[in-house]
């Protein structure tokens, strides 16, 4: 995506709003407060709402490396997402679609009929997000079903008897059915992202902070100290409380600005 956009920036204008000289970008909007809602929701959706982290991190024997592992992973994805967002917004301008890959349906390296290689690139970029979501859907369904089963029927988790297997199948079925039914009700991507950000805010900011404070109190009682081998500067109480306040403020702000942008 980045390479093809940069090629377009230095080969031809995307539309009449682009500059007449190289680089063929459009006049950027550096700041728009009304876009905070979708920005916050997108950041939560793409970066923080990773319910599979606990499952992925479980097989690692040395959990001390988790902090470095996930820090480097999220830093890498953040940099890539940021670069994609900047170059695409500069090139596509106000015509940037809510699903940014859909801009490639109208994309060509030059003002002519697209070549075969350009058509292939179009389909790869356009279809990749769809295929990616389809591929991750079963994993998310299994994680959600496992969590719900552990909440309501903990005695059946990891059991091999017929009743436990039936309960597991039912939880997986309904965990997969819920988002499918939700997609029939809510069809606009910005609304989906903002809606998901409500749950994402709880998962990314609120619940972890409460668990952090509660676990530190438990460590104080059992070990007579709050710090563990996994503690770091992010484990400080003031940091946790600041994240909690930020999560509530950002979540409410996201809803308010999204409502204003759509109905204001």
From TrEMBL:
Keywords: Membrane, Transmembrane, Transmembrane helix. The chain crosses the membrane at residues 29-57, 69-92, 120-148, 169-186, 192-211, 242-260. It is found in: Membrane. Its main location: membrane. The keyword Transmembrane helix applies. Coiled coil: none annotated. It holds the Pfam family Aa_trans. The keyword Transmembrane applies. Residues 1-224 form the Amino acid transporter transmembrane domain. It comes from the Eukaryota. InterPro entries: AA_transpt_TM (IPR013057). PANTHER family: AMINO ACID TRANSPORTER TRANSMEMBRANE DOMAIN-CONTAINING PROTEIN (PTHR16189:SF2), TRANSMEMBRANE PROTEIN 104-RELATED (PTHR16189). This is Amino acid transporter transmembrane domain-containing protein. It comes from Anaeramoeba flamelloides.
């Amino acid at each position: 995506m980045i390479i093809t956009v940069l090629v377009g920036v230095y080969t031809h204008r995307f539309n009449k709003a682009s500059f007449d000289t190289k680089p063929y970008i459009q006049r950027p909007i550096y700041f728009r407060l009304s876009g905070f809602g979708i920005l916050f929701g997108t950041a939560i959706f793409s970066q923080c709402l990773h319910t599979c982290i606990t499952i992925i991190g479980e097989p690692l024997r040395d959990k001390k490396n988790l902090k470095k592992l996930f820090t480097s992973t999220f830093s890498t994805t953040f940099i890539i997402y940021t670069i994609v967002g900047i170059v695409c917004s500069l090139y596509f301008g106000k015509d940037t679609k809510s699903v940014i890959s859909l801009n490639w349906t109208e994309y060509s390296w030059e003002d002519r009929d697209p070549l075969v290689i350009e058509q292939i690139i179009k389909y790869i970029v356009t279809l990749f997000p769809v295929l990616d979501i389809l591929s991750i859907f079963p994993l998310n369904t299994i994680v959600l079903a496992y969590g719900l089963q552990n909440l309501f029927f903990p005695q059946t988790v990891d059991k091999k008897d017929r009743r436990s297997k039936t309960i597991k199948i039912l939880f997986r079925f309904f965990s997969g059915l819920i988002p499918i039914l939700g997609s029939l009700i809510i069809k606009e991507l910005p609304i989906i992202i903002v809606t998901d950000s409500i749950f994402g805010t709880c998962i990314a900011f609120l619940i972890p902070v409460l668990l952090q404070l509660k676990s530190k109190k438990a460590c104080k009682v059992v070990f007579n100290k709050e710090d563990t081998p996994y503690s770091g500067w992010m484990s400080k109480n003031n940091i946790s409380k600041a994240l909690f306040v930020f999560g509530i403020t950002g979540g409410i702000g996201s809803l308010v600005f999204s409502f204003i942008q759509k109905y204001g």
